[in-house]
Design goal:
It is built from 11 helices and 2 strands. With 305 residues, it is mainly α. Bound molecules: zinc ion (2 copies). One zinc ion (ZN) binds next to helix 4 and helix 5.
């Protein structure tokens, strides 16, 4: 027990020091400045060549989403996740040790060249995340948390990181075992994180970019806007276009649907007009009573229809 408490304290202080170091020491592998840089890049592109030309430069909820960006990318880790996940991982390891399992690694990629290991991690992780995303839409209590992301009414790059912090918990928990079963010989996945950050911003951006045949591989704004459609096409009551970074899973598993140009479609979900509009309200939604309000009933009826 004492070991766990020590771990919590050292995780907190370690992360706080790390965060402060990141802010005060710009260097090329700095998440803080990469987040700012990638965001500014898409903000500029949206201003120079917007897809929806009449959308305001600072669209509806821009600043709310701006806050979410830093909350989900940094503060959440600082406040809860970093310490909690270290503890959970250690409890899990201690639990496995009771059964004599000391090592989960079943697949060894250590001998592969670095770039191939990075590619493998990226591909496996994206496929796991695509599955988790589908779960978020299918399991009613998870959908209540995921509604935060779908409450976006006007789309822009910053909407990428508008999501409930519980999603971090769900994604990391489900990812943990399969990824722990793969032995990697590198521990620096910085480039994968920045790449997925950039593609995530891109998917949500107010840009029209034709990827040509690459659209069957990479997610893009013309595809992802339909994931946010308020009225889903017939035969897809839970959702379409679940892709995170890659679109290939949707094409393979027949959940890719682009009925027509989605530039001006209505976004949200049935009942989203009653969804909380503040950070606190949105973060309380999903816990307890308010998850079972009329909004849920309405969307349930609508999706069963
Ligand atoms: Zn979704
Ligand atoms: Zn989205």
């Amino acid at each position: 027990m004492e070991a766990y408490i020590e771990l919590i304290v050292s995780s907190y202080t370690g992360y706080a020091n790390y965060l402060w170091y990141e802010i005060t020491n710009p260097h090329w592998k700095n998440y803080f400045y990469w987040l700012i840089g990638v965001s500014l890049f898409f903000l500029m592109l949206e201003w120079v060549k917007p897809w929806r030309k009449n959308q305001a430069k600072f669209r509806q909820d821009f600043w709310l989403d701006f806050f979410y960006m830093f909350f989900n990318f940094f503060l959440f880790s600082l406040i809860i996740y970093n310490a909690a996940s270290d503890v959970v991982v250690n409890i899990f390891k201690d639990f496995l040790a009771l059964f004599g399992i000391r090592n989960l690694v079943a697949i060894h990629l250590e001998t592969w060249p670095g770039w191939l290991q990075l590619g493998a991690l990226f591909l496996i992780r994206d496929f796991i995340q695509w599955n988790v995303h589908r779960l978020l839409h299918r399991v009613p209590w998870l959908w209540e948390f995921h509604k935060v992301h779908h409450s976006v009414q006007e789309m822009g790059f910053a909407a990428h990181l508008r999501y409930h912090w519980m999603e971090n918990v769900v994604y990391r928990t489900i990812e943990y075992i399969p990824l722990a079963m793969i032995g990697f010989g590198i521990d620096d996945f910085f480039i994968v994180h920045i790449f997925t950050l950039a593609v995530g911003h891109f998917n949500h951006s107010n840009l029209r970019v034709s990827l040509g045949p690459l659209k069957y591989f990479f997610n893009n704004p013309q595809m992802h806007i339909w994931h946010h459609a308020k009225h889903l096409p017939d035969g897809h009551p839970y959702g379409i276009n679940y892709g995170i970074t890659l679109s290939i899973w949707d094409y393979l598993f027949k959940t890719a649907v682009i009925p027509h140009d989605g530039r001006d479609i209505e976004l949200g979900f049935p009942g989203s007009e009653h969804f909380p509009t503040t950070f606190v309200g949105q973060n309380l939604h999903g816990f307890g009573r308010n998850a079972n309000t009329e909004v849920t009933q309405e969307s349930e009826t609508a999706s069963n229809a």
